[in-house]
Write a structure and sequence with these properties.
Layout lengths: L1 E10 L2 E5 L10 E5 L12 H4 L12 E6 L14 H14 L1 H4 L8 E7 L5 E11 L3 E2 L9 E13 L6 E11 L2 H12 L7 H7 L5 E7 L12 E4 L1 E6 L4 E4 L23 H28 L29 H11 L5 E3 L2 E6 L5 E2 L5 H9 L4 E2 L3 H4 L10 H8 L3 H4 L8 H8 L14 E2 L5 E2 L11 E4 L1 H7 L7 E2 L5 H14 L2 E3 L2 H10 L2 E2 L2 E2 L2 H13 L3 H7 L6 E3 L2 E3 L6 E2 L5 H9 L4 E2 L10 H9 L8 H7 L2 H5 L5 H13 L8 H9 L30 E5 L13 E4 L5 H7 L6 E2 L1 H10 L6 H13 L6 H8 L4 E2 L5 E2 L25 H6 L2 H7 L9 H14 L2 H13 L15 E3 L2 E3 L29 H7 L7 H14 L4 H13 L5 H11 L5 E2 L6 E2 L4 E2 L10 E2 L5 H9 L15 E3 L16 E2 L6 H6 L3 E2 H4 ...
Helix pairs in contact: 4-6, 6-7, 15-17, 16-19, 18-22, 26-29, 33-34, 33-35
């Protein structure tokens, strides 16, 4: 109510004044039924709306007069003068007048007037519309809604303009199923939001009905920033779209903004529902409606349908625009998914296609687009930002163009199209991909025609690409060869680079040359024409792929040797480069050598050409030399000692160049080079025997031994151990998987690995050697010896020394003769190995965790009580510290009760009275060390639990020594810190027994008869034996009593039934609380007074708060702006079914005589804003205004208003309002 405090409403013959400030004798609202309207004709400017009205006629409509506020009031301190109101109207005319009627159901005209202070009337503006009947849209691409279209023509006249403004609008209206909408909203709210979506939508009048208005005359060049959001009426929300959108948006209370989507509301709250509703509209329903709009507009003949699309949005935009940040994306997805025919085809202005049937152009030049379109390709060119949204679109690329052109090959061969082929060919090759010309007749030939190449796999004809000099050499061998010198340089370059991989072409390859060589006539195994052969080698020398071809010439006899032509790949050596003394054995081995003729000497052209393709063999390269030899020749080689020595020196002198493979290794082994070590055992007839030089058979392992202290070598099957003088590198070449040279420790390790297969003498020698040379033997070998099964044990099997007990150690008594843990008696007597192993300290001579665990398992399994006693004695005598292994907690300890586990025993002879009825002691004569006792907790005091069990057993058995035992246990307990839980267990142990020692006798008494004072032998009360505070504390906790208490009369005692809150209650004199031991049931049985009932009259106080009407109006005005007054009254007129609406800013001051009361004169007689519509208020309308915050339209799903707050915007202008109505039931009787 920034403008007025006194709204006035005139409807037909009834006038009502809304007076929330009680200016009319404390009446909030005033109404009067008029006999005639004569006093109101001028005051309400009725003749402007009804020129023929007479004083006695009924006014056909409703007029609201808002006298402008001239002084601050309790409703508002803001004063809006008539000039300010006029400016509001001018802004409305400029910004909203032409679009206000777009989505209203009934209103067809709005008129705006100004009456100056001297009474001159000016029409500021008038706008009217005509609507064509709606057209139901059939065959929609979307089946999720119903749709219709309406054509609307608008005419607006504005003061100061020479001609009226006109506009032609096409409006799409869509309606989506309510049930599906409710389900979609529920899904968005999530499973945790337990709300009735249908009820919420109905309550807030949120219906899935959308409308989009497109200004047909502006679509080619839409007004910038023209698009607005509507909720029937325009909202102050500019979208920058080219269309206006109406939907039942969830708005803030001011109706100026959408609910803030960036906050995090409580799930399932109204705020949460509002935000998700708006998201549902923008994310789902608006894209579907917009897609239908595009579909509808394709038949409208618009020049560019892409102007109707929403413009590019930023994904990071905030505020209201955040709702439609991804609208273009959702629209594109909807259009694609629904297969809407909305994509205009270039060169076909009226043709629209679905996205799947068009190529989407981006930045290609028009010359190319026109050429392709002329050829018959369907192409569309959306703006770039739309292209970026089309994830599934076929973008115009050389690949896509190629695919489409395959269906238009006839057009490419047309004579009229030949001038466009270079443009298309250039584009197809623009990505340097030859596959894009496959199957298309676009490749030029020397004679000016064009032909098509095909994909390599789809054609049996292969065209070989030949350079000029290659064409001269091989063209007679291939009629389909292509000379690259006759085609375009770019195409030729691409054919060279990627043609052979993609098309049915290939460059000259080694396989082609091989094919050519095979069809050339040959005579006597050599080329017919030596000139051609020379030219071939000369060309091959410079050919880029000569290294690829050369290996393929392996079988062609083009390489000369001393014995004739050889295959090209055959190794060959130059005899002139070999020392004469080495040349003889090499010739004996038939090494291939280059002829010593002039034609192939080092300076000849043929030799230079051959050097280009390959290297001649070098005898210093042992790899090459071995490769050139044949194994059967090597195996048959029998040279004299000098030749063998010369060859051996040559091989060993060049071992650095040797890279062994299996073939070279076999040839090297076959040479008679090798000396056997003198300590190697003789292996018998048919095997290796000692001789000067030997060959090494296949499959034999080879070592060279260099020994210092070892006097033996192990017997190894299929193994040759060579003399230390043999070349190390040569030995390593013979045996690549082992070290070529073995020293003492390595031979010893090898002996241990094969220990079981060695003769007894070698076995004893191995152990003796390690014992004698212990300081020189690596520790890991001694450890390996300890883990090697070399000792024969009682059961005849062999076990490693670390698993065997030294028969001379203290541990031997733990095992019986013949045990598998002791050496066999025969083995012990027949060998010296045990003494050497004992020297090496490899047998078990002390207890270990593993030995202890094994003996305990033996004891528990066999119940060997004797062994258990022996084990305990060994542990004590050896001072062995028991390890924390699992086995020590089993039943292995020897006791008079048999074998028990540690938790069942205790070893404390001096204090056995504390536990001997519960825990057993060890056998007599057995002693334990401190670590033994610590591990089992026997060094700790006996537990409270055991003490309690000792008490229970002693009292139950009624032993003669019971008094002594109980006294000892009680003394122990008095020295302990005992928990309440322990006290309970102790009480349970002595329950029903006499257990308390008393003074002067060896008698035990029950707890209830044991006291510290007030002894009464007649009453059987005895004094506890033990004095002192610890005694009092212990026995009191155990149930004994000092016999001290106070008795009170029952009426003065109250039972505490309110718990800790009793501390807040002050008891009177002579009033007491009952002892805690008194239970609730006992208190009720005694009819004892209850503390809570005594103070039942206390209660909490509260404050009742209310809210005045003026406060409500003032608060609501803060949510609305003065410019919203016009929109709210337009909404009221539309909701009332009016077709006409008028506005007057009236600066005339009416006569000062009163209308209804003199008190209202000062606030109603002045400039005013008058609003008119041609409908009549109903009683529901009046109730809606009066019931602020409830409204009269909440049940009308097609109305704009709902809660009645919008009508309060009138109080921006006035303090008192007037309502004029015709029937008593429509009177405004209270706001």
């Amino acid at each position: 109510m920034f403008i007025t405090d006194t709204p006035q409403v005139l409807s037909q013959s009834t006038l009502a004044i809304l007076d929330p400030l009680n200016k009319n004798d404390d009446q909030t609202n005033v109404e009067r039924q008029l006999d005639n309207v004569a006093p109101l004709i001028d005051r309400f400017a009725l003749k402007l709306f009804q020129p023929t009205i007479t004083p006695t006629s009924t006014f056909p409509g409703t007029v609201v007069r808002l006298p402008l506020r001239r002084h601050p009031s309790r409703l508002s301190t803001q004063i809006l003068s008539a000039p300010k109101i006029r400016q509001l109207l001018v802004d409305f005319i400029h910004d909203e007048l032409r679009i206000t009627l777009l989505f209203l159901a009934h209103l067809t005209s709005i008129s705006i007037y100004e009456i100056s202070a001297d009474g001159n009337v000016t029409r500021l503006a008038a706008s009217s519309i005509t609507r064509a009947p709606p057209t139901i849209l059939d065959n929609l691409p979307l089946s999720t809604c119903t749709a219709s279209s309406v054509d609307l023509k608008e005419t607006t006249t504005i003061a100061g303009t020479t001609s009226p403004l006109t506009g032609h609008w096409r409006i799409l209206r869509t309606s989506f199923p309510a049930a599906a909408t409710a389900a979609a909203l529920s899904t968005r709210l999530g499973p945790d939001a337990t709300v009735d979506a249908i009820a919420i939508l109905e309550e807030h009048k949120l219906q899935p009905d959308l409308a989009i208005a497109a200004h047909l005359s502006l679509l080619p060049e839409p007004e910038p920033n023209a698009g607005r959001l509507f909720s029937f009426l325009p909202l102050p929300l500019h979208t920058h779209f080219s269309v206006h959108i109406h939907a039942p948006f969830a708005l803030t209370p001011s109706r100026e903004k959408l609910q803030n989507r960036e906050e995090t509301p409580a799930r399932g709250s109204v705020y949460h529902i509002s935000v998700e509703w708006n998201k549902l509209l923008f994310d789902t329903y608006l894209p579907q409606a917009w897609a239908l709009l595009l579909h509808m507009l394709t038949a409208s003949g618009i020049p560019d349908i892409f102007t109707v699309w929403p413009p590019r949005q930023s994904p990071t935009q905030l505020g209201d625009s955040g709702y439609w940040a991804v609208l273009p994306t959702h629209l594109a997805e909807t259009v694609i998914a629904s297969r809407c025919c909305v994509w205009p085809v270039i060169a076909s202005p009226k043709q629209f296609s679905i996205l799947d049937d068009v190529l989407v152009a981006t930045s290609e030049p028009d010359t190319l687009i026109n050429a392709l379109a002329t050829c018959g390709l369907a192409i569309t060119r959306p703006p770039q930002y739309i292209v970026e949204l089309l994830k599934s679109a076929t973008i115009l690329t050389p690949a896509a163009a190629h695919t489409s052109l395959l269906n238009h090959k006839d057009a490419l061969t047309s004579d009229t199209f030949q001038d466009k082929l270079p443009v298309i060919l250039k584009y197809l090759l623009s990505t340097n991909t030859l596959g894009y010309i496959a199957e298309l007749p676009v490749v030029p030939t020397p004679n000016g025609t064009h032909f098509a190449l095909t994909h390599r796999l789809s054609s049996s004809t292969i065209h070989v690409l030949l350079e000029t000099h290659e064409y001269d050499l091989f063209h007679t061998c291939d009629a389909n060869a292509i000379s690259l010198g006759h085609i375009d340089a770019h195409l030729a370059s691409l054919l060279r680079k990627s043609g052979p991989d993609m098309l049915n072409v290939e460059s000259l390859t080694p396989s082609c040359i091989l094919a050519y060589l095979r069809i050339l006539p040959l005579t006597h195994g050599a080329p017919v024409n030596a000139t051609w052969v020379a030219a071939f080698w000369s060309w091959l020398r410079h050919w880029p792929l000569h290294r690829d071809l050369y290996p393929s010439l392996a079988d062609f006899p083009l390489l000369p040797t001393q014995t004739g032509l050889a295959a090209v790949c055959a190794p060959i050596f130059e005899a002139t480069q070999i020392h004469p003394r080495l040349l003889a054995p090499l010739k004996a081995l038939r090494l291939p050598l280059l002829p010593e003729s002039r034609a192939f000497d080092r300076t000849s052209a043929a030799c230079a050409a051959l050097r280009t393709f390959r290297n001649f063999g070098d005898v210093n390269n042992i790899d090459a030399m071995l490769d050139a030899l044949k194994l059967d020749v090597v195996q048959a080689f029998e040279g004299d000692n000098e030749a063998v020595e010369q060859l051996l020196r040559h091989v060993t002198g060049h071992m650095f160049s040797l890279h062994m493979n299996e073939d070279r290794r076999r040839k090297l082994r076959a040479l008679p080079f090798y000396l056997v070590h003198p300590l190697a055992p003789y292996q018998g007839q048919g095997q290796i025997q000692r001789q000067r030089r030997i060959r090494i058979p296949d499959g034999y392992t080879v070592f060279k031994a260099c020994l210092t202290y070892l006097t033996f070598l192990p017997v190894l099957v299929d193994t040759v151990i060579l003399d230390s003088s043999q070349s190390t590198s040569l030995v390593e070449a013979l045996e690549p998987n082992t070290r070529g040279t073995l020293f003492d420790s390595e031979v010893l390790a090898l002996s241990l690995t094969h220990f079981a297969s060695q003769p007894n003498t070698i076995q004893q020698a191995i152990v003796k050697c390690m014992a004698v040379n212990i300081k020189s033997i690596p520790g890991k070998l001694i450890e390996e010896l300890g883990n090697t099964p070399i000792i024969v044990v009682g059961d005849g099997s062999r076990r490693s020394p670390c698993e065997v007990i030294d028969p001379k150690s203290p541990l031997a008594v733990l095992y019986e003769a013949g045990s598998c843990s002791l050496p066999h008696s025969d083995f012990e007597q027949a060998t010296t190995i045990l003494s050497d192993l004992r020297f090496l300290d490899l047998m078990q001579s002390e207890l270990s965790p593993d030995t202890l665990a094994e003996r305990i398992r033996h004891i528990t399994c066999t119940q060997d009580h004797k062994c258990a006693r022996v084990l305990v004695r060994v542990i004590y005598k050896t001072s062995y510290k028991l390890p924390p292994i699992d086995e020590i907690h089993t039943k292995w300890l020897p006791t008079p009760k048999g074998l028990l586990n540690p938790s069942e025993c205790h070893d404390d002879p001096l204090h056995h009275h504390l536990f001997d009825h519960v825990l057993s002691q060890l056998d007599d004569g057995l002693r334990t060390n401190d670590s033994f006792r610590e591990l089992f907790g026997w060094d700790q005091p006996v537990s409270i639990k055991v003490l309690g069990q000792q008490l229970r057993c002693t009292l139950t058995a009624a032993l003669d020594s019971a008094h002594t035992v109980v006294c000892d246990v009680v003394r122990e307990l008095m020295d302990r810190q005992i928990s309440d839980q322990d006290i309970c267990q102790l009480k349970d142990a002595v329950a029903g027994h006499s257990w308390v020692p008393v003074s002067g006798t060896s008698t035990l008494v029950r707890s209830e008869y044991a006291v510290f004072s007030g002894v009464n032998s007649v009453a059987r009360f005895h004094q506890v034996m033990f004095p002192g505070p610890e005694s009092v504390r212990f026995f009191t906790r155990m149930g004994c009593s000092e016999r001290s208490c106070t008795l009170r009369p029952l009426p003065s005692v109250f039972y505490n039934d309110i718990g800790d809150r009793a501390i807040l209650v002050a008891l009177g004199d002579g009033e007491f609380l009952a002892h805690d031991v008194v239970s609730s049931s006992l208190a009720k049985a005694l009819n004892m007074g209850m503390l809570g009932l005594k103070y039942i009259d206390l209660k909490s106080l509260g404050i009742d708060m209310g809210k005045q009407l003026t406060t409500t109006i003032a608060n609501k005005l803060r949510s609305y702006t003065p410019r919203q007054v016009l929109s709210e009254f337009v909404a009221n007129a539309s909701d009332a079914g009016a077709t006409e609406f008028g506005i007057i800013v009236d600066e005339v001051t009416p006569p000062s005589h009163k209308i209804l009361s003199s008190q209202l004169g000062e606030v109603t007689n002045g400039p005013s804003l008058v609003l008119y519509n041609n409908s009549v208020f109903t009683s529901a309308d009046f109730d809606g205004i009066c019931q602020t915050g409830i409204g009269g339209k909440s049940s009308q799903s097609d109305s704009i208003g709902q809660f009645g707050f919008g009508a309060l915007t009138m109080f921006h202008l006035t303090d008192v309002g007037n309502v004029f109505s015709t029937s008593p039931e429509s009177l405004l009787i209270g706001i």
